[in-house]
Amino acid sequence: VVDGEQDDLQGVPTLEEIQRHPMDDLLRGERLPHIWCQGCGIGTAVSCFISALLRSGLDLDKVAVVSGIGCTGRVAGYIRLDSFHTTHGRAIPFATGLKLANPELKVVVFSGDGDLVAIGGNHFIHAARRNMDLTVICVNNFNYGMTGGQMGPTTPTKARTSTSRQGNLEHPFNVPYLAAAGGATYVARWTVLHARRLERSIHKALLKPGFTVVEAISPCPTLYGRWNRKAYGSDMFEYYRQKSVIRHNAQPWEVDIDLAGEIICGEFVDIERPTFQDMYQKLHPDVHPSEDLGLLQRPPTELDAGFEVARLPTLDTERDVTQVEVGSLQTSAVSEAKHTEIRLCGFGGQGIILAGLITGRAAALHDHLETTLTQSYGPESRGGACSAAVVISDGAILYPYVTRPNLIAAMYQEAYTTYHGQLAEGGLLLVDADLVHPDPDAGQCVVRIPATRIAEEELGRTQVANVVMLGAIAAMSDVISAEALRRSVLESVPKGTEELNAAAFDRGYEYARQQKSE
Ligand code: SF4
């Protein structure tokens, strides 16, 4: 800036302002990047929803978003509102409970076709029948994307999927017809190519009382598209462009989708009907429904007391995790325990389960300790959280599951969020430095290991990040000897990759030793 130019810059947005996206306030930036594939349409549907919500004037403190399971189910995790990622097919009953307990809330169910009209199909039609005051945004990509592209209840007849390779024999559900037959007060369908119309319909649905449904036809190029010669997002958009026609007020039973036919879009239902809450209030004008159901001001029960007792302790430290000095970590809780619990966690594809197997093998076969290994992973074929839990003891193990790990190695934010609260007092938490942002208020001792970065930039293979982390574990804890762990790595990895994995282990070990000694 030279003399006289400062004034000219007044009103010019700063770099930070330019870099901010108008929707940033409603997105949980710390959860990004998202897991959706290139060309997927779910992000467009989310964008339309946020835009409609901001325009609606609704009090954002009184908006709740509920999702089920699946690619679209991830929406709840990315939206910065009171949001709930529930179990498969149960988004609508969960949302119903929220609405009954707090009628002031605007409750939005944002989920996929498989979740809403297959596993949750009964909930969908009965919520419509009751005219429960909910807005449902159903992202329909014609298959189960998250679990590998299986045929679902909306897969068009003759369409190919991973479980209907010769073509689907079944007739698909027509989502608008299902909603309308149930009694929904507003029903619309758009493809995500019709982004502005989709946004307007969501806006209308948000402001209209009763069970309102917007179906967003959305591309899944990775799976549905690949099986049906539309492997790119652009192919799917071209298909929508060619096949979709707008026909407002079409009879819902006329808007079936078949493989070669039109995709009829528009507003199909817009009616008035008393909601469940309206009728309840009429019957009991002086009673808040949640009071009647005993949902408000519930007196404490023995269960609550039990919950308090069961709550995990937090460490007596106020250190900011970003400033923890590694050399001062109290790893004694790990090294002195005769019974040690280790949890390795991350997302599918990071080799977490293999890392658990390597750890267990090292302890059992080479250090001659008692060991158990349990694994958990979601139904997702990609991107889902997974965990390998290892119990190591010099005596008999009477209970094989990990409940209070002394050591957690988290290689993904969601896995960290899920498990870090379990860490035993004085325990050690290793995180991938680039993929996990630990909660500075958690009061836990955290060591940041750039495992993925080392694997990618120094060793040229992201796949060995798990072994880099195992090397770091060997350096930071003496529950298992480094020799045993290294030997176990070499015995467990695919033939021909031993050298690379040995280098990964050594680099992780060396990095952590260096951190510990500084
Ligand atoms: S699998 Fe399909 S629906 Fe799921 S994120 Fe990828 S493109 Fe989207």
Can you describe this structure?
There is one protein chain. The chain is of the alpha/beta class and 518 residues long. It has 2 domains: 6-291, Rossmann fold (3-Layer(aba) Sandwich), CATH 3.40.50; 321-517, Pyruvate-ferredoxin oxidoreductase, PFOR, domain III (Pyruvate-ferredoxin Oxidoreductase, domain 3), CATH 3.40.920.10. Helix content is 37%, strand content 17%. The protein has helices spanning 5-8, 15-19, 42-56, 75-78, 91-101, 113-119, 121-130, 175-182, 195-207, 221-227, 233-243, 276-283, 289-292, 302-310, 332-335, 352-366, 413-419, 451-458, 465-476, 482-492, 498-517; strands spanning 63-67, 82-85, 106-112, 135-140, 143-144, 150-151, 186-191, 212-217, 244-246, 263-270, 339-347, 370-377, 385-393, 407-410, 428-432, 446-449. The strands form 3 sheets. Strands 2-1-3-4-8-7-10-9 form an 8-stranded mixed sheet, sandwiched between helices. The chain has a 6-stranded mixed sheet with strand order 12-13-11-14-15-16, with helices on both faces. A hairpin with a 7-residue loop joins strand 12 (370-377) and strand 13 (385-393). Helix 6 (113-119) packs across helix 7 (121-130), helix 7 (121-130) packs across helix 8 (175-182) and helix 18 (451-458) packs across helix 19. The protein starts with a helix and ends with a helix. Residues 294-337 have low confidence and may be disordered. The structure holds iron/sulfur cluster.
